[in-house]
From TrEMBL:
InterPro entries noted in UniProt: UstYa-like (IPR021765)
Transmembrane segments: 49-68
Annotated GO biological process: mycotoxin biosynthetic process
Protein family (similarity comment): Belongs to the ustYa family.
Ranges for region Disordered: 1-20
The UniProt record lists the keyword Transmembrane: yes
Protein name in the entry: Tat pathway signal sequence
One protein family per Pfam: UstYa
Keywords: Membrane, Transmembrane, Transmembrane helix
Organism taxonomic ancestry: Eukaryota, Fungi, Dikarya, Ascomycota, Pezizomycotina
Residues spanning the signal sequence: none
Keyword check for Transmembrane: yes
Amino acid sequence: MHRDHELIGGQDSPDTESLLSEDLHPSEKLLLRPELSARSRRNRHVKTWLHAVAIAWYTAMTIALYTWSIRLRAAHKCACETGMISSPAQKAVEYETLTITHNLDNSTSKYRGEPSPTIDAAWDELLQYNNIRVSSAELLAANLTSVALHDTPSGDSHLVTLDVYHTLHCVNRARKALYPAYYTSPNRPEVDRAHVEHCLDLLRQVLMCHGDVAMHTYQWRDDVRVPWPTFATTHQCTRWDRIVDWSRGRSVESLEGSILQHPTLGVSYPVDEKRRAQGNEE
């Protein structure tokens, strides 16, 4: 018996095809099978294509989000990481987390306490690579100029000091000012005072420039009414040994003699006592 079947939207759904297949005579099923197989193949092709498109879309989105996250992290890096200030020493900079202790007693540091040859030797070692050499290209990269050193065949050698060493020099100068009877000076008193005031204000500016935001905490003591500082603060620090290693390779052992000469006044060092008394020395 021939039956008419109404198809929704002019297309057979899988359920409709199943019902048709159940109602058809076996001979009619054979005639219908190629049509059903072709439709199934088309459906499989469509599904495969949709899966491929979905995979491609998710892959593209993943790559885009990863790239965006890298750019975002780069945009939020601090200046010390991205190198806003050009310096050949930047390549030596590494960071570490350190807890800095600063107790009031003198037993925790070899750089503090009553003057002695041992303490002076510690400071001399700390500042031994104060004077270093750089090339013209390295100065140009930082848009700087500096005096020439006359100790290389090429003549492409210039005197600089990494600022951390100049700052440490100022700390040492302020330390010595606490003990004028021990660290006698040939300079006039007003010259020494001006030098120390210069150093103290430099320290203020450097500290404000770096703006360390590490948290300094407090505690209660049984014998003190007010909060007492813990005297231990955790900081993100530049690895000092890396700076020392880099500076050692650029170090100028001595500035005395022909290595450093003023264009009109001649050899710079040693400084004669008259010029030293006038304050023309560091």
